[in-house]
Amino acid sequence: MQIHLSFDHELFFGANTGTLEKCILEPTQLLMELAEKNNIPLIFFVDAGYLVQLKENSKHSRCKDDLEKISAQLVKLSAAGHQIALHVHPHWEDCKFVDDKWIIDTKRYKLSDFSKEDASKIISKYNKALFDITGRKCTAYRAGGWCIHPFSLIKETLKENGITIDSSVYFKGYHDSPAHFYDFRTAKDKAEWKFENDPCKEDNSGSFKEITITPDKIGPVFYWDLYLKMKSAPEKYKPLGDGMWLKDKGRIYKQFHSSTDHFACADGYFSSRLINNLEQCEQKKFERMMVLSHPKSLAPCSFEYLKEFIAFAKQRGHQFTILN
Ligand SMILES: [Zn+2]
């Protein structure tokens, strides 16, 4: 099996975005060290709208400095053999930098909140911002907040940009909130397929490949346990990032009261489930396992569990790879 450790490389989008250092640079540096020790490549889905905004606001010294720092790290990641892929959070179009901080506006959180013409321009502009830094073309995409629908909005633009792999879909994923909308309930429980017009629908003559995020059904006991662990040992379980998530009370209520459809993830204590996630992939005879995490949400325990997971997977004969 090919195992992909992917990280959505971004700030927080709630009332406080957190700092570049704590949310991105420091945890990504720790990931690079872990990858080097284990001789494995990682995949970073980089929130390129943030790079565009840093450049547009470079009259502010902090934005100029942050752009230099994040660019240097992206160049370093790319040179070390890690994959840089495109992650699009279009609400950056409406964000402003005032009094040394980002004012985040999520009224238009997903690309479907924009016209087709504007959505195309956003994809091309964000993709170019990444290329200008790394000098390498992206071939893979992940929609911000999983909001990939409707794919018709961006299909041609992705093709024009040479992007033919998507990794936004996870089995049974569904969410409808003021900011988000996605519905993967028609997708099959498979690791990959080809598609053309709908990433949830297999089409063997399609020009795109969907590499799904490995699913994980999680019961409420896990969330209660996580809550208690964060309270009793925050130094081990609390995320390294210093920002706040976009508020989503409905989702939190569901997680504490019923089983919810989630995905394989190394964020915080979720990382304790990775070995079990892998065993499920083995049972289903999957060709791939895709783990979705965020540098901002990794906790000290994540690195311990990741270390154990990598050793376990290697011992079972699996390979860590980038997307192809
Ligand atoms: Zn994201």
Short recap of the structure:
This protein has ten helices and 15 strands.
Protein model, in words:
This protein has about 325 residues and is an alpha/beta fold. The protein has a single domain (about 1-320), classed as TIM Barrel (Alpha-Beta Barrel), CATH 3.20.20. Helices cover about 40% and strands about 20% of the residues. The chain has ten helices and 15 strands. Strands 1, 2, 3, 6, 7, 10, 11, 14 and 15 form a nine-stranded mixed sheet that branches. A hairpin with a 4-residue loop joins β8 and β9. α1 packs parallel to α3. The longest helix is centred in the N-terminal third of the chain and has 19 residues, at about 20-40. About 40% of the residues are buried. The mean pLDDT is about 95. The structure holds zinc ion. Zinc ion (ZN) binds near residues 8, 10, 47, 89 and 144.
Question: SSE layout and pairings?
Answer:
Blueprint: E1 2-9, H1 20-38, E2 43-47, H2 48-56, H3 61-79, E3 83-88, E4 96-98, E5 101-103, H4 116-134, E6 140-143, H5 155-160, E7 165-166, E8 174-176, E9 181-183, E10 192-195, E11 208-211, E12 215-218, H6 220-232, H7 234-237, H8 249-257, E13 260-263, H9 274-283, E14 288-293, H10 300-315, E15 319-320
Parallel strand pairs: 1-2, 1-14, 1-15, 2-3, 3-6, 6-7, 7-11
Antiparallel strand pairs: 4-5, 8-9, 10-11, 12-13
Bound molecules: zinc ion (ZN).
The site of zinc ion (ZN) has 6 residues, from loops.
